[in-house]
Fold:
Amino acid sequence: MPDKHISSIMQTVHSIHPSASVEETVNEMSSQGTDAILIKQGEEYIGIFTRADLIKLLEKNADPAGVSVSKVMSKPIFSLDAATTFEEARKKMVEKNIRHYSVTQNGKIVGIISIMDLEL
Structure:
């Protein structure tokens, strides 16, 4: 498996506008069956929102309906090239303690992976 590329397991990119509430964002994530969503303004991805971000918000007793996702998203978005091997991706995720990376090809985001995708 070490020479398999992350492009073979990447997930579809789902996105939402930065003005969406955290509640709307979580509902979108749930309907798409994903635990991470990219925040997109115009044609540019400006951040990422994950379950971990939701947990941090809930720990502060904040109302997810009253907070825009842009206030709690993580940024910048970290990326790996689609030709990155499973082993390289796993190593980078562990070293940097980042659970989600966008997958890029020719400089454009084409997918997303999580550490869980690499636990095959």
